[in-house]
Write a structure and sequence with these properties.
By secondary structure, the chain is mainly alpha-helical. It has two domains: 3-88, Orthogonal Bundle (DNA polymerase, domain 1), CATH 1.10.150; 115-292, hpI Integrase, Chain A. The protein has twelve helices and three strands. The chain has helices at residues 3-16, 22-42, 52-64, 69-88, 115-122, 130-145, 149-154, 182-199, 219-233, 241-254, 259-266, 271-292, and strands at 160-161, 166-170, 175-179. The protein has a three-stranded antiparallel β-sheet with strand order 1-2-3. β2 and β3 (175-179) form a beta hairpin. The termini are far apart. 28% of the residues are buried.
């Protein structure tokens, strides 16, 4: 099978069988396309005939080109997934990426906001127009639930149950139910009852959050919203939609929530992904101790 055919088959597999997110899909396909370009320019091999030595040489080439540890590690993950797929389809006899091992990197703890910084950020939308009500509802919902920005913009009106104070979120692997605190319920109620009906272009629009054109909000659109409120609040820390997700988890843990419950709400498949917040809270306690204890 030609490189182009392998690539198209892998793309279809990621979309239809793996149900990969748009970010994962674009990253994996970009990595595999780049590896194909490397084979064309540096060897006379194709995907199916490349062996362990070729893949090792490719990862060395990435490092020599100045790619970060994270980028090389992602490329290795893409290659492992790609060749596992080819092996499952009988297109290769063995997985040449099986022995590739990513370099260890120092995992930086995620940036979070303090409780006061969160309050300051949530206070920024001014409910003097439709945009202000919508933005306040989006920020409150994001901090109330810790959902990913892709999950936020994918929410439909039917995913919200205001009377029972929860949302249904369709994540990467399964649907999960996440509770809402009263301020988030109020913000959502005001937006859904009085503002959204005026913003939507069509009565059939199902999207919970819409842009000024009355259509589903985009990732880029919400990114600009949150950056504008960061600037308005005068918060110096870099804030992304994921910052509120990290802050949600760390603040729950600080206040006594157990890791399993946080894992369930975040939609982490593995508890190890959630345990990073324990490290974060411990580091914060150590920093407080070092600054405050007279003999530290």
């Amino acid at each position: 099978m030609s490189n182009a055919s392998c690539y198209e088959a892998f793309s279809a597999y990621l979309k239809q069988e793996k149900k990969a997110s748009q970010n994962t899909l674009s990253s994996y396909l970009r990595d595999i396309r780049q590896f194909g370009d490397y084979l064309d320019s540096h060897t006379d091999l194709d995907y199916a005939s490349a062996g362990e030595e070729t893949l090792s040489a490719y990862t060395a080439w990435l490092k020599a080109a100045g790619k970060s540890v994270a980028t090389v590690s992602r490329n290795i993950a893409s290659l492992k997934c790609f060749y596992s797929f080819l092996l499952s389809r009988g297109l290769v006899d063995k997985n040449p990426a099986g022995k590739l091992v990513p370099d260890k990197s120092d995992h930086k703890l995620p940036q979070i906001l303090t409780s006061k910084e969160v309050e300051l950020l949530l206070e920024q939308p001014e409910c003097t127009d439709m945009k202000g009500y919508r933005d306040r509802a989006m920020l409150e919902l994001l901090y109330a639930t810790g959902i990913r920005v892709s999950e936020l913009i994918d929410l439909d009106v039917g995913d919200v149950n205001l009377s029972a104070a929860f949302i249904r979120c369709r994540g990467r692997d399964k649907e999960r139910v996440i509770p809402l605190y009263p301020a988030a319920v109020r913000a959502l109620s005001e937006y859904m009852d009085f503002v959204r009906p005026q913003m939507i272009r069509s009565p059939d629009e199902s999207s919970l959050f819409v842009n000024v054109s009355g259509e589903r909000m985009s990732r880029q659109g919400f990114w600009k919203i949150i950056k504008s409120y960061q600037h308005k609040a005068g918060i110096q820390k870099p804030i992304t939609p994921h910052t509120l997700r990290h802050s949600f988890a760390a603040h729950l843990l600080e206040n006594g929530a157990d890791l399993r419950s946080i894992q369930e709400m975040l939609g982490h498949a593995d508890i190890s992904s959630t345990q990073i917040y324990s490290q974060l809270v411990k580091k914060q306690l150590k920093d407080v101790y070092t600054k405050a204890h007279p003999r530290a």
